[in-house]
Amino acid sequence: MNFASDNVMGASAPVLDALVRANQGALPAYGNDAVTKRIEERLCELFERPVDVFLVATGTAANALALPAAVPPYGLCLCHREAHIMEDECGAPEFYTHGAKLAGLDGVGAKITAADLEAHLAGLGRHVKQMPPKALSISQASECGLVYAPDEVAALAAIGRAHGLALHMDGARFANALAALGRSPAEATWKAGVDLLSFGATKNGCLAAEAVIVFRPDLADSLAYRRKRAGHLLSKGRFLAAQLEGYLAEDHWLGNARHANAMAQRLAAGLIALPGVRLAWPCQANEVFPIIPRPLDQALREAGSIYHPWSSRSLPHGETVGDGEVLVRLVTSFATAPSDVDRFLGMARQAFRPRSTG
């Protein structure tokens, strides 16, 4: 029962089948193959407009290459203080921007509100001694599993535009967020004001495939060169494209995400039915963040369950984690079976039963 992350699972069958098909014969290198051209056209169709597409193998590469397109070395990129680009990418965004800084904002559930953004921008200096803000990056879904609705994105984008900020969306779990919202990819991104999207697929059924999708043509000019200079232009680029071709075919990607989300809802419902268990934040995508008694945590780990403790920095106002409690993160995936969830919940219920003294 491994709920550590959705990146611990392998690839889905349609993705693997697409890779096998793409393995046949000789094709041009460096993204000049027919498979890459097809996926570029498919993404334009998916987002209902022409877009620039840059395929890469990792989410860190997608984020670290997207941000410098909007943020110069002397600029500032705003994000939540628990954002993946801030805490989990080993300084890659700052490295590839050649010195630009990330500035972390507070926000419940690792989300930034329009009011938070406006207040932060109002407090920044305007002197040449201060780094000017050039972009805002938001995570969809957030690091605490919450989803930005299109109107929330639009409110952030409007404030950003008024201050000259581009809007980047880290969509590592974009499919899960989209499945939760029930909105189209276009409605969730450029129609709401997103300029750059890191389109994640690895966590939702691919082996290693992500894409930088650019909605503002002026931000795409340097990305082809940045990708090559950073060593992220694969010579056998067809294998990145093939993964995405299998991923997107017949809405397989959304089916994967809906299943993962449903497993998270099943898990959350079972956990909150247990005594002393509550959710730190609502379960909106494929992550569950329960606050559980420490004895339950110990029993589950002793039984072989794998998951991670989590930070309490973005808890709702008035919520705390007591001395006898622990906040943990459980992540479901396209490959999580209902039996996995039910077994985990069964062990959790067993932990509350009195032990026989013989």
Account of the protein in words:
This protein is of the alpha/beta class. It has two domains: 13-251, Type I PLP-dependent aspartate aminotransferase-like (Major domain) (Aspartate Aminotransferase, domain 2); 253-351, Alpha-Beta Complex (Aspartate Aminotransferase, domain 1), CATH 3.90.1150.10. It is built from 14 helices and twelve strands. The protein has helices at 13-22, 34-46, 59-66, 84-87, 92-96, 114-122, 150-162, 174-181, 185-188, 223-229, 238-248, 252-272, 294-302, 338-351, and strands at 52-56, 76-80, 101-105, 133-139, 166-171, 196-200, 210-214, 278-279, 287-288, 290-293, 308-309, 325-331. The strands form two sheets. It has a seven-stranded mixed beta sheet, with helices on both faces. Strands 8, 9, 10, 11 and 12 form a five-stranded antiparallel beta sheet that branches. α1 packs antiparallel against α11 (238-248) and α2 (34-46) packs across α11. The longest helix has 21 residues, at 252-272.
